[in-house]
Protein: Acyltransferase 3 domain-containing protein
Organism: Alloprevotella tannerae ATCC 51259
Amino acid sequence: MKDTFSKADTMAVKGVAILFMLFAHLFNRSQLIDLSTPLVYVGEQPLVYLLIFAMNPVHFFIFLSGYGLSLSNKNGGGKRCLRLYSHYWLTLLLFVPLGCIWGDPQIYPGSIVTIFKNIVAWENSYNHETWFILPYALLVLTAPFIFRQIDRRGYKWILSLSFFIYLLVRLASRWDGKWLDEYRLLFWIDSYFTLLLPFLLGAASAQRFPLSRLRERVPTWVPIIGLPLLMIGIILVRNTYQSIFYPFYVTAFILLFVCIKRPAWLDRSLNAFGRRSTSMWLVHTYFCYYLFQDFIYGFKYPLLISLVLLCISYLVAVVIDRLNAFLQRYLIV
């Protein structure tokens, strides 16, 4: 039995993550919920709003990055980053001109400085939800150094240090987050160390939790019951104590999820979304926030709104992936 995630497992988790991302971005603020007509409430809160507390898609993707990099060749980070940036630049090339026509003229295209900062992802004024491109790239580039330290000192020491730093940056941002808006460098430092912990938890899971042993020891019913309970638990905790538990929640969620014997049709669907997840991430908020918000929320009901955004994002992602594959084949060795 395989001791690490298969490609199908990884793509299925990415599929879950991108579904979470689209749903969360549709209903993560009261102003957005006001554009729709929720049908189910828990007390005075719409259920769709509470559900997003169980969705932290960025941590899912970062966990998988740490998991994969710990098993693969830890060099070659520059090429990985170039591939991601070229993918990102393609979406800018396609959508920023549309923003100049249908978007906010104060944002698209902006000054030369604004254009440059968006190209290098120092700023994300064109599409704020691409914010973790830069910290992800920094994690990939520093991964060889991180893994050398793990080899020397062990996972326990590095994870403990990372958790301590994670607590410091989370508490500092809760205490007075204005400095993150005022000083972009501090924002990126905060983002890097916030994402470092789920990255390391992914790496540790690959090295310390053989999948075959995990599947043998975890009864079939445990993930089926455990995942809903885990989601309810993080909703209750997140609603009161903010988000400091997310890295551990995501780790537990993914490890339980890969232990589930999933129906073939579900795996095929999640894998399809997982394969398109990068493009779907890079484009979906152009539709629901920046360019075509009235159209998306015009479908009124949360389920319909979600399905429409999912379908549009997927179809556009298919086109972008084909263009991206062509460009990378001929431009990136």
Residues 103 and 291 are 5 Å apart (CA to CA). The mean pLDDT is 92. Residues 1-55+272-332 form one domain. The chain is about 75% helix and 0% strand.
